[in-house]
Specification:
globular, alpha/beta, TIM Barrel
Length: 333
């Protein structure tokens, strides 16, 4: 887990990832607050190799709450840049996940590929073709701002029932035009976003997509679909797939440490692309097993890094890697 990994022109100091986790702590206008500075800065001091900022909205109506970060305005760039510089100063690679909540957004105007309700959210309005183009443009502008802020990695949120996922899954996409029907058509929205962000995002920086590998529901996305999607994404210049699952509609599935690892393993093998795996992983021994067996290239620790920002330092069991300011508290130093 402490072996560096190179992707494009970025060297990751280790394989531990802090995945995007919404903090619901931005201003109502989507700006960074001191909570974010402390939250992300602490994990950088704690040695996390890749920190991916929480889902950051490419347009205001796409926020997941009225206190989620935004990247729909140039005024957002300065605060985001401060987080990047803080993380990089302490050795972390800094990424950002840009997103649109679709029918799961917060607010009165819900949009989606089709007018199909999500529980407790109401019925969204189906996007017109022109509106799809407008949303794609918002993703492009978001990528431009992410680059201006200095992020090392850009991730597109295509999982958990949000707008891109809604287009990908046949359970939420009933369109009869070129954006619906076949898997090829349902991928069109995502591919148009990728083409748009690549106009702004440097070719030498990694581009990532987070996918829900399965909907856990009959008639929904399967791991075979996701392998095909990942193959296509690789052909279109995506470098890293963050493999999650579910979120489109309520579903029943078994939970346990590493429960999503087989999904990342299938994507890595089937598409020959670098992957991040995640899912109730807490123990260094499990992280080592996943990486040494080649089941994934990175391991994301979500809740565990919320509980313990110094997990990486403790896992290495090397007292000398702790910040010198803390040495008096470390046994043996």
């Amino acid at each position: 887990m402490f072996t560096p990994f190179e992707l494009k022109n970025v060297t990751f100091p280790n394989r531990i990832v802090m995945p995007p986790m919404c903090m619901y702590s931005a201003t109502e206008d989507g700006h960074v607050t001191n909570w974010h500075r402390v939250h992300y800065g602490t994990r950088a001091v704690g040695g996390v190799g890749l920190i991916i900022l929480e889902a950051t909205a490419v347009e205001k109506r796409g926020r997941l709450s009225n206190h989620c970060l935004g990247i729909w305005d140039d005024e957002h760039v300065q605060g985001l840049r401060e987080l990047v510089e803080l993380g990089q100063e302490h050795g972390s690679v800094m990424g950002i996940q840009i997103a649109h909540g679709g029918r799961k957004s917060w607010g009165e105007e819900l949009v989606a590929p089709s007018s199909l309700a999500f529980p407790d959210k109401g019925i969204p309005r189906a996007l017109s073709k022109q509106e799809i183009k407008d949303v794609v443009e918002n993703w492009r502008q978001g990528a431009r701002r992410a680059h201006e802020a200095g992020f090392d990695v850009l991730q597109l949120h295509g999982a958990h029932g949000y707008l891109i996922h809604e287009f990908l899954s046949p359970l939420s996409n009933e369109r009869t035009d070129e954006y619906g029907g076949s898997l090829e058509n349902r991928m069109r929205f995502l591919l148009e976003i990728i083409a748009a962000v690549q106009k702004e995002w440097p070719e030498d920086k990694p581009l990532s997509v987070r996918l829900s590998a399965t909907d856990y529901l009959e008639g929904g996305l399967t791991i075979l679909d996701t392998v095909q999607i990942a193959q296509t994404l690789k052909e279109h210049g995506v470098d890293l797939i963050d493999v999650s699952s579910g979120g489109l509609l309520p579903a029943s599935f078994k939970l346990g440490p590493g429960y999503q690892v087989p999904l990342a393993e299938a994507v890595k093998a089937g598409a020959d692309i670098a992957t991040i795996t995640v899912g109730l992983i807490t123990q260094p021994e499990l992280v080592q097993e996943i990486l040494l067996s080649g089941r994934a290239d990175f391991v994301a620790l979500g809740r565990e890094l919320l509980r313990n920002p110094y997990w990486v330092l403790e896992a290495k069991a090397d007292e000398t890697i702790w910040p010198w300011q803390y040495h008096r508290a470390i046994k043996g130093i």
